[in-house]
Amino acid sequence: MTNPTAARIQDAAMARFAAQGFDGTSLVEIASDVGIKAPSIYAHFRSKDALYLSLIPLLIQAELAYARDSLLKGRGAVRGRIRQYLRSIKLRFDESYRVKFWMRTLAGPPLHIYQQVLEPLHGFMDDLEGILRTAIEQSELLPNRHGLSAPVLARTCMSLIDSLQSELVHGGPLKYERRIKAVWAVFDAAVVAMPKAPPDVRAAGNAEASEPGEPPARRSPAAGPATASRPLSKTAD
């Protein structure tokens, strides 16, 4: 069970890191937010680096839970769920300092602990791609006109997510809005459904189906309007 004081320190750290970044945040500020003295933090985390790294598994767990709820348990067609998930990137970024910290970490973790941050993120991305693939496999997105498979579409979605998060963090909300409209238009066009096969007119029009290889059965005069008979030739007197 997580120590309550450690959990409060982590929550305060996330808020500070989200607003000020790693380099702009001090342990003194975090301790002040929690209501303790800075040296007390060391009873729970040996350094600011260790505190920062302790946040990554918590956020991975929360983000995967959100993805499962949104993509696997959500209402409506999967196409709409994916679109809503992409739309939620900005909404959640604006509303939650936890999500803001998460996206800024994805976009640019502290350089001196880059590899330590990146290692668990690789596992997160694999898991998120798996969730997308599972959602797509049994959805209306397959089959599609271009023959795109579930793994290909899942990887495409991962590229969209990465692109939109990066644009939001580095470019701002207006550029994010322009980009999501563009990338969604392309994705939507890529997953156009296969055209429906034309109905079997012959089978629908004949009461009795012909055997394979046989010509279709002739219609009897009673089955339709009578054809005009050819006039008889006059006989010679």
Question: What tags apply to this protein structure?
Answer:
237 residues, mainly alpha, Arc Repressor Mutant, subunit A, Tetracycline Repressor, domain 2, 64% helix, elongated, disordered C terminus
Walk me through what this model shows.
- It is a single chain.
- The chain is an all-alpha fold and 237 residues long.
- It has two domains: 1-46, Homeodomain-like (Arc Repressor Mutant, subunit A); 55-190, Tetracycline Repressor, domain 2, CATH 1.10.357.
- Helix content is 64%, strand content 0%.
- Residues 209-214 and 219-237 have low confidence and may be disordered.
The helix content, as a percent range, equals 55-70%
CATH class wording of the largest domain: Mainly Alpha
Runs in which pLDDT lies below 50 for 5 or more consecutive residues are 209-214, 219-237
Can you count the helices?
10
Determine the structural class based on helices, strands and strand pairing. mainly alpha
The main pleated sheet reads as: none
Shape: elongated
Strand percent estimate: under 5%
CATH-derived topology of the largest domain: Tetracycline Repressor, domain 2
Intertermini distance:
119 Å
Query: Care to count the β-strands?
Result: 0
Rg over C-alpha atoms, rounded to the nearest angstrom = 31 Å
* Name given to the CATH architecture of the largest domain: Orthogonal Bundle
Order of helices and strands: HHHHHHHHHH
Mean pLDDT: 88
How many structural domains?
2
Secondary structure elements and pairings:
Elements: H1 4-20, H2 27-34, H3 38-41, H4 48-72, H5 78-95, H6 97-107, H7 114-137, H8 150-171, H9 173-190, H10 201-205
Helix pairs in contact: 1-2, 1-4, 1-6, 4-5, 4-7, 5-6, 5-8, 5-9, 6-8, 7-8, 8-9
